[in-house]
Amino acid sequence: MKNIKNMKLLKFYFLASISVLLLNSCSSDDSSSSGSGSLAVTGISRSVIDDPLIEGDRQVDVPTDVINAGNTYIIRGSGFATLKSISFNGLKSEFNPTLVTDNAIVINVDQKTPYYNEMDELKLVTNIGTLKYKVKVRPPSPNIIGFPINPNEGDIITITGEYFLRPVVNFGTIKVEPISSSLTEIKVKVPAGIQYKNLSITNVSGTTVAPQSFGSAIFDDAYTSLKAYDGLWNAADGYDTAYTKDVKQGSKCIAWKAGGWNGLYVGIDKTKVDMSKYKAIRISIKGEKTGTAIGIVNGNWGATVSISFKSDWTYIEIPFSMVGNPTELTEITFQESGNFGGNTLLIDDFGLVLK
Pfam families, per this entry (predicted)? Predict the structure, then answer.
């Protein structure tokens, strides 16, 4: 399987590719504000194709006759300079005017674009007219919302998400046939040998790889066996480890009503964590108020890290290199540090990140 860290570089490469492709699409008179020639579409290309399960397969500017919602395309033709709106199957997609010339449009198709029993139509509205163009519109790649991160071999697990249309499920490179599936839920039996591997789901439009590796969760709907103990510096703080009203991954999270400068600590069973496999701690955190917390690993106050978060879910990675390069993991502590008397914090998807 392709290393997940390489996937994080895709956005950078993608933006660079867009700039090159757009410049190559422009003729010397494309800067005209009124456009040139008639309104026409001569072709559509997928800006980037990159299967996360295959190394070295990345392609750019690939001609296609299918639009998959949620992806980025280059539409070529003429008369685009005065573009006012662009829609697919009746739903408008927002466009960046700086990525539109008279002969090319770079557009990220709205993920919510309808695709079932629709007219399969691209519609362009410009100052020189309106064009309807026939093109097949299909669903986005799968969206994985939740799954048990530390399952046992033989468990029947449920994967929740969206766009599970004819899904193919892989645990690393191990393909598993679904027991049952719908557009939003898949049930599968966990195979052997999944530790340090990632879940991936492929539908008719593409493949999505879950960022969490199997066995890496410290908290996933509940504390896992990686936890040795847990508690609060001040027992008067509220502490709910089965909060269901707002979660990031799965169905439950931690809700901590933290007093000012109070702490929450989690002891780790070091015998169950192979530090040679991991590079960081991950956590998704959300505050009732925008604020900060301090992360302390193994009680090392000489190498703490500040965590900033908003009143929406914020994903944080704490590299071990920032907290003293520990050779074993025994305890992780979070101290509220907003300096305004405390905060209510939600914590979810708490675990480790593979190298």
Answer: TIG
